[in-house]
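Try it yourself: sequence plus pyridoxal-5'-phosphate, in.
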Amino acid sequence: MTMPGQPAKQGPRSLDPHLRRYAARTAGMTASEIRALFAVASRPEVVSLAGGMPHLAALPLESLSAEIGQLVASEGLVALQYGSAHGVPLLREQICDVMALEGINGHPDDVVVTVGSQMGLDMVTRIFCDPGDVVIAEGPSYVGALGSFTAYQAKVVHVAMDADGLVPSLLREALEACKRAGQRVKFLYTIPNFHNPAGVTLAVSRRAEILEICRSYGVLVVEDNPYGLLGFDGQTYPALRSMDPDNVVYLGSFSKTFAAGLRVGWVLAPHAVREKLVLAAESATLCPPTLNQMIVSRYLSTQDWKGQIKTYREAYRERRDAAISALEQHMPQGSTWNIPDGGFYVWVTVPEGIDTKAMLPRAVTARVAYASGTGFYADGFGSRQLRISYCYPTPERIREGVRRLANVIEEEMQLAATFGATPGRQLSGPQTPSPDTA
Ligand SMILES: Cc1ncc(COP(=O)(O)O)c(C=O)c1O
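Structure, out:
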């Protein structure tokens, strides 16, 4: 029996009376590992290094609430009404100004406003992928994107990264192997800046080559860039989209630079693709929330949004420093990690013999949560990796969380030394190298 306050137990799938009714595509829809532990991991005594929640406490809530109040008072009849699936025209113009910071010369007509870039991912997959089509993605890759790809029954082929991001020669090899196997590759999905979860950035010197390889194989590029303005030194990199506008679909978001809960993102697509995206968006939501779009638009025209991004960057830099110094101080030998220069994440490789997925419940019992590496691969790799998100907890909590995590790893190592490898699946094949080891 479920006690009040306890999460309801999930029965075995076979007890679901609707099982025979589900579409085949739902077979790939499974809750992420951290979602399964969410109820426990979100208790206040647990330091969560798991989720990628932005540090909203840095927002000027009072002035924002005044702006939002004025917006409803003066333009409520528009803001609370249906709008177009394409998005609010003024916001689409402002989005072009935001993208110009990374070298993109986009036209407002080619921007489609979405409910977060997650919806952009869903729509792009919906319009391009038939079941069995291949999407190439970095290994590891963003879990929400993998969820969209599997929901449309696309097959994900991972290409490894090194400290400079996606490795062009490995991309070429993967495309060649797909070609030989007669597989239809629809697009390369890539997060070039401050990668989630790997924390690395694609070297500028590799960008043209990656675009050229994709062109030569007739493969579209889907560039997902929610963190591009969060470089800790204020540095930005030329967007892939700026270098090959006709073959890149660009996904942007206000989630990390303003407010994730407003759910406002966008897609900038080649003109013909944009038409299909608007139709797909219309059938999904009719239109993105008008009020939220107008809030973002007003924010961009009345507030110091670039100053706010700087405030965010400084907060994340301080948190990154706390995470890295704690890792250096506490992690046992045999662990490695990269040092991100922007974004939210550190990608950690733990000593051999430890399975981060099997270890997760024990870590949560020790009051620290993280995202285990396997969730970021579609093919079962990543059992020696984990992602630390330093974006949300205070620096002090981050240090404490990393200390607890290191203790759990030490205990696992002692167990492994006494009884053999930790329980859970041990992969027999080679591990895809993490960014810091390749
Ligand atoms: C790489 C990447 N893409 C897309 C998203 C989704 O963001 P949004 O809030 O805009 O839907 C995230 C969120 O964490 C992300 O990390």
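One thing you can check immediately is this: The two ends are 49 Å apart (CA to CA).
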